[in-house]
Amino acid sequence: MKIAVLGSGIMGSGIAQISAMAGSEAYAYDVAAASLANAQEGIQRSLSRLVRAEKMTEAESQATFDRIRFTQDLAEAVSEADVVIEAAPEILELKQELWRAVVLHAPVSALLGTNTSQLSVTRIASCLDDNSSRLVGIHFFNPPVMMKLVELISGINTDPAEIERASEFAHYLGKEVVVCRKDSPGFITSRAYAILRLECVRMLEEGIATAEDIDKALRLGFNFPMGPLELGDMNGIDTYVHALTGLAEAHGERFRPTVGLKNMVAAGRLGRKSGRGFYGYDREGRRESNSDS
User: Fold this and answer.
1) Residue 267 belongs to what domain range?
2) In this structure, is residue 293 part of a structural domain?
3) Where are the alpha helices (DSSP H) in 53-175?
4) How confident is the model at residue 117, as a pLDDT?
5) What are phi and psi of 212, to 5 degrees?
6) Nearest to residue 84, comparing CAs of 145, 138, 43?
7) Measured between alpha carbons, how far apart are the two ends of the chain, in Å?
8) How far apart are the C-alpha atoms of 34 and 273, rounded to whole Å?
């Protein structure tokens, strides 16, 4: 199987890696050479961690990496693909522009999936005319290598057969599947988790507890692998505020981002990628200080 992943950020590079780990030939596409270089380094680090954890051998790690092709040529990435997964930033116009180009080069038999956590699959697919029935929301979770869940989303025009194909593909990658059958902003997971994290932010801003204790309470009290605030730092505070804004437009005031969150974005406190968010981080992305929020 040949799998093309469009966008080589954290999500895209992770999806390319798990595709190669499943035994497929994976193409990692990005318009920026620097992004592809970062993806190569990130995948190599991830594979090295799996070797150290004795979850794969050195030989298996190298074979996995060798199955990934890094390219800035979209036609090369998708022209013989069995599956195309778009993992571009959550900007509707950007995703639509990319899909218009994809359908010019990808086989008509290819499964088409958009890795979106909150944008309407129907609106993304609206640019595809007769091909709109082919597009499925295939929402992977961060980091894709570790997280077992894939959320599938059906747009209004999505062919049910394509949902079934997407489910088979996710199982091929070793994932568990849930299906959101109504194309509602936030779907199942992003909608539920956004409001949970927002309540944690409100508690922090009200001085009820520190970020560390809020995260610890959720990890140990509810068996979360990572606290909502530290996960927010990993994903990016700006990304979260953007998602909340869209959810507030769809579902009302309960999703409205707080003034404190907006101020964090304005001040450049975007989380791990900027070195400062709810926590502080060193250049390697390791937490180095307690929250002073």
Assistant:
1) 191-281
2) no
3) 58-66, 74-78, 92-105, 121-125, 160-172
4) 85
5) -60, -45
6) 138
7) 48
8) 16
pLDDT per residue over 137-165, tens digit each? Answer: 999 998 899 999 999 999 999 999 999 99
With tokens 């070797």, the residue in question is 51
Residue from 221, 125, 113, 217 nearest 165 by CA: 113
Q: The pTM is what?
A: 0.85
Which residue pairs, CB below 8 angstroms and at least 24 apart, start in 87-90?
87/5, 87/6, 87/7, 87/9, 87/11, 87/12, 87/15, 87/115, 87/140, 88/6, 88/7, 89/7, 89/9, 90/116, 90/117, 90/118, 90/119, 90/239, 90/242, 90/243
- Asked if residue 198 and residue 172 are part of one domain, the reply reads no
Domain end marker among 158, 180, 202: 180
pLDDT digits (tens, 9 = 90+) for 47-72: 999 999 999 999 999 999 999 999 99
Q: How far apart are CA 240 and CA 215, in angstroms?
A: 17
Contact status, residue 236 vs residue 273, Cβ threshold 8 Å? yes
Tell me what pLDDT residue 293 has: 46
Residues 108 and 83 in one domain: yes
Tell me how many degrees the CA angle 9-222-227 measures, rounded to the nearest 5.
35
Strands 83-86, 2-6: pairing kind:
parallel
Residue 292, domain member (yes or no): no
By the 8 A CB rule, do 99 and 7 touch? no
Low-confidence ranges of the chain (pLDDT < 70): 289-293
238 shares a domain with 137: no
Q: For residue 278, what are the β-bridge partners?
A: none
Q: Are 235 and 271 within 8 A, CB to CB?
A: yes
One-letter amino acid of 223: N
**Joined tokens for residue 115:** 């890795």
- Tell whether 91 and 207 lie within a shared domain: no
